[in-house]
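Hi support team,

I've been running sequence recovery on a batch of backbones for a student project. Most finish fine, but this one hangs at about 90% for roughly twenty minutes before it completes. I'm not sure whether the input is malformed or the queue is just slow. I've pasted the structure tokens below so you can try to reproduce it. Let me know if you need the job ID as well.

Thanks,
M.K.
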């Protein structure tokens, strides 16, 4: 958001894990370029092109998601519904309910394909997947709590776009009588469970 931009917004000092991942990527690239394990050349045109395509597609998708969301977009999960916040379901969100996460996941994998880093391709994909398999259910549980009638229907017609991320089992219809009480109970339980997983993996 333009009114809260600061140094952290550029995700340069995101976390120790982020720094370790970057250092691992650079280290693998230069060691393989120098030593050429198994006598294989470091650069592979096919992997480079595939990586470029994934990086470009991921970056475009993430940018579109941020543009589509406008003031509703934030890097941090909203724990309480802010005044004026609304559920965005058009544009980049019409088929993917987390296009920013999907874009970042494939951008992340693409950077290592582009560098022809086979070890880091696997490591980055696994680390990003493990992060999102906890974050997405937690965020979806909160959104279902904020929008008990709209969100389950939205989930039913959209996709995540990240392989093997668990689909949150929301009952469509907002619970008994359509009043949303049952939906709120389900969402609260799922949010609590996912939050515990996030805390244990931090």
């Amino acid at each position: 958001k333009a009114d809260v931009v600061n140094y952290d917004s550029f995700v340069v000092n995101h976390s120790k894990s982020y720094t370790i991942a970057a250092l691992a990527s650079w280290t693998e690239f230069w060691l393989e370029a120098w030593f050429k394990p198994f006598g294989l050349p470091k650069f592979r045109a096919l992997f480079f092109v595939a990586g470029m395509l994934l990086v470009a597609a991921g970056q475009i998708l993430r940018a579109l998601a941020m543009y589509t969301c406008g003031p509703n977009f934030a890097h941090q999960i909203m724990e309480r519904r802010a005044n004026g916040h609304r559920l965005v379901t058009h544009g980049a969100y019409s088929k993917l309910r987390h296009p920013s996460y999907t874009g970042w996941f494939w951008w992340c994998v693409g950077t290592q394909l582009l560098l022809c880093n086979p070890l880091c391709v696997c490591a980055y994909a696994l680390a990003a997947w493990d992060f999102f398999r906890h974050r997405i259910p937690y965020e979806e549980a909160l959104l279902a709590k904020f929008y008990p009638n709209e969100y389950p229907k939205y989930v039913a017609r959209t996709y995540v776009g990240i392989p093997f991320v668990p689909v949150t089992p929301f009952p469509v219809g907002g619970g008994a009588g359509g009043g949303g009480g049952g939906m709120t109970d389900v969402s609260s339980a799922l949010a609590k469970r996912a939050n515990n997983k996030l805390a244990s993996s931090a």
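--
Follow-up from support: It reproduced on our side and the slowdown came from queue contention, not your input. Confidence is low (pLDDT under 50) at residues 174-187, 197-202. No action needed from you.
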